[in-house]
Amino acid sequence: MIYFVTGNRGKFEEAQGVLGDVEQRNVGYAEIQADTLEEVALFGMKEVREKLDGPVMIEDAGLFIESLKGFPGVYSAYVFDTIGNEGILRLLDGVEDRRAVFRSVLGYAEPGMEPILFKGELWGEIAQKPRGSGGFGYDPIFEVGEKTIAEMDLEEKNTISHRGASIRDLKSWLLSR
Ligand code: IMP
Q: Residues 146, 136: contact at Cβ < 8 Å?
């Protein structure tokens, strides 16, 4: 049983879809202001390991938009909570290059073990308008092919997504020991 420290039910369900044996713990941790998702995840790991005794994981993700030079990136949560999807669409109004990538960094550790990181990414394009009601966050404005992620079910999202990839890497690592 792995404790997944997150307040985000959507993330937890995605992890459960891949790992099965995982428990959501919403104990909270500081998300530091840093230049990379890796730094945020490693710093967070220190705190959650002090709070929970057992195998723990956390996951930090971000949306990086090419024409905005990687914005909102490590500020994705703040930007989502402030300007949201409508704000992102306004920033890209009239912009032709809509390429973007979701990145996921997952931290995992067991007591007495150095934390390890697993990563995943998903390339796509920012849609012209939000579509779909599944997923969470930026999913309604992130297109892969014909569909936005919010138009996919959980299994389809997990098959292609940044988080699906980082969680599957953790799973393979756990199985290969
Ligand atoms: P965090 O990893 O929880 O810090 O997420 C940063 C921001 O990106 C939050 O606003 C999330 O809602 C959003 N986000 C994280 N993962 C995804 C995803 O898989 N799809 C869409 N938005 C996401």
A: no
Ligand 1, residues at Cβ distance < 6 Å: 8, 60-63, 76-77, 80, 102, 135-139, 161, 163
pTM (global) more than 0.70: yes
> Of residues 60, 93, 97, 139, which has the active-site annotation?
60
With tokens 């992620």, the residue in question is 149
Please state, in angstroms and rounded to a whole number, the distance separating the CA atoms of residues 71 and 67: 9
Taking only the tens place, the pLDDT of each residue in 45-78 is: 999 999 999 999 999 999 999 999 999 999 999 9
- Work out which ligand 1 atom sits closest to the CA atom of 162: 19
| CATH number of the domain that residue 76 is part of | 3.90.950.10
> What are the pLDDT digits (tens) for 95-144?
999 999 999 999 999 999 999 999 999 999 999 999 999 999 999 999 99
Candidate of 11, 63, 74, 160 to mutate for ligand 1, largest count of ligand atoms within 8 Å of Cβ: 63
Nearest CA to ligand 1 atom 20: 139
Nearest to 88, CA basis, from 60, 67, 59, 61: 67
Structural domain tally of the chain? 1
Check residue 59 and report its DSSP letter.
E
Domain that holds residue 67: 2-176
